[in-house]
Design goal:
The protein is α+β, with helices and mostly antiparallel strands. 58% of the residues lie in helices and 11% in strands. It has 22 helices and 14 strands. Strand 6 and strand 7 form a beta hairpin. This is Putative unusual protein kinase regulating ubiquinone biosynthesis (AarF/ABC1/UbiB family).
Length: 475
């Protein structure tokens, strides 16, 4: 508990340090009035209005931290004060990131995967708020949806559908999904991008990067600054639905007829609209909330199979790992959707990754150190004790030592606390290691997939899956 209290105190200090910067951003933003384009839009596009909303997050958190110190002085315990602060911050986080959509909501979705690593006494207020970001947000009005469809599919777009439901079935960061019937009778999902999503996405990510130090305190199990940088680097891919459709076609072809994985086929696409076959199933979000033990284990095993087999089968890696993108079907398969973020791996997963896993698992510290240095994880001008590197990495690969491993929130929390303890050797070792740019996406996606396994509380044979699909592990 002492460690947790110290971590909260450090978060309070960080919040106060960022107050001046947040105030400056809020002062620049004039939130009065909206332009005509925003009047019927689900995605507010005025830069000043969005900036003010985002600036309200660090301002509100900093203000509550200062108020919390006052309440401590009047006799309330640190635990009581921080529980109240966390609950209010979580509600504000959901309201701002969820209603803004764009880069704000995408950032919230990325964070939500890592909530399993936050200690329960700190995370409970955030858990519901963050997981709600994996689901829906306020929809775009029908007339605006029709306008986008006319621009993207032509004035006769209605003739391409036997039926089209104006009420969206789902809404996400930069688009929403409608159900329809294609002219040939196929049930389809129609993903429509919000007008102004490009400006909102770029503006939000620039603004969020300014407050990366503060947001770090929300989810200590991940590094927020490079996560935001990666989201910014990949936003052009996210915005181009033609590229997303091509990615989905590639995955669908690679997994066609598979007994474990279903990727819906694309029916039609344009820069801001994707039409694909309609699929049904139980969302992983729902399984995390109330799934049976059998559902949790099955969902976890299928996710691991898809994650580790995709580089070999499709030469691609699905790079948006959050529970809303996966469904467990009644036929026992996992259905995967949303291919806006994809890593291209023309030669499959790097064999060095499997070799590093194996060396860490077997305790061969000198060879492990050499492999990490060769890949750039240890810089040429850095010297680290190989035994310290082994001690840092071995707990992370421990799930591969057992025939079946039970992923849990407790395990994720133990790893986050171990690596985040400022007084421990693992923290110093982690700070000395480097993450090469070409490893960033693979590292983030793998960590995200493991985060979902921990949210699912799934038990699965990870070792056999890795042995089959990860080059370098069984060599």
């Amino acid at each position: 508990m002492t460690e947790h209290r110290e971590a909260r105190d450090r978060s309070d200090e960080a919040a106060t340090a960022d107050t001046a910067e947040a105030t400056e951003a809020a002062d620049v933003a004039d939130t009065t009035g909206t332009d005509n384009a925003d009047a019927d839009s689900a995605l507010p596009r005025r830069t000043v209005a969005r900036t003010a909303k985002l600036a309200s997050l660090p301002l509100g958190m900093a203000g509550r931290a200062v108020g919390g110190w006052g309440r401590r002085l009047t006799g309330q315990s640190a635990e009581e004060v921080n529980a109240g602060l966390s609950a209010k911050a979580a509600e504000q986080l959901f309201e701002v990131l969820g209603t803004l959509k764009g880069g704000a909501m995408k950032f919230g979705q990325a964070l939500s995967v890592f909530e399993a690593a936050v200690p329960d006494e700190l995370a409970e207020p955030y858990r519901d708020a963050l997981t709600r970001l994996q689901a829906a947000a306020p929809p775009m009005p029908a007339k605006q949806t029709h306008r986008v469809l006319t621009e993207q599919l032509g004035r006769s777009w209605r003739q391409r559908f036997a039926e089209f439901d104006d009420e969206p079935t789902a809404a996400a960061s930069i688009g929403q999904v409608h159900r329809g019937t294609w002219h040939d009778g196929r049930e389809v999902a129609v993903k429509v991008q919000y007008p102004g999503a490009d400006d909102a996405l770029r503006g939000d990510l620039r603004q969020l990067q300014r407050f990366s130090r503060l947001f770090q305190s929300l989810v200590p199990g991940t590094d927020v600054k490079p996560l935001l940088a990666e989201l910014a680097d990949r936003m052009d891919e996210e915005l181009d639905y033609r590229r997303e459709a091509d990615n989905q076609r590639a995955f669908s072809k690679a997994f066609a007829g598979d007994e474990q994985v279903l990727v819906p086929r694309v029916v039609a696409s344009s820069p801001q609209v994707v039409v694909s076959e309609w699929v049904t199933g139980t969302s992983y979000t729902e399984i995390i909330r109330s799934g049976t033990r059998e559902q949790r284990n099955q969902a976890g095993r299928l996710l691991a199979e898809f994650h580790y087999s995709s580089p070999a089968r499709a030469q691609l890696l699905h790079s948006d790992p959050h529970p809303g993108n996966f469904m467990l079907r009644e036929d026992g398969r996992v259905c995967v959707i949303d291919f806006g973020a994809v890593a291209r791996l023309p030669y499959g997963a790097p064999p060095a990754m499997g070799r590093i896993m194996r060396l860490a698992l077997e305790g061969r510290s000198e060879e492990l150190y050499a492999a990490l240095r060769a890949e750039g994880f240890v810089r040429a001008d850095t010297e680290i004790d190989p035994d310290d590197v082994y001690a840092y990495l071995h707990p992370i690969v421990a799930p591969l030592a057992e025939e079946r491993f039970h992923f849990s929130r407790r395990w994720a929390q133990d790893q986050a606390l171990r690596m985040g303890d400022l007084r421990g050797q693992d923290f110093r070792t982690g700070r000395s290691l480097n993450l090469p740019p070409h490893w960033l996406l693979i590292h983030r996606v793998t960590a995200g997939a493991i985060g979902i396994l921990c949210q699912l509380d799934a038990e699965l044979p990870l070792r056999s899956i890795v042995q089959r699909w990860q080059p370098g592990f069984a060599d």
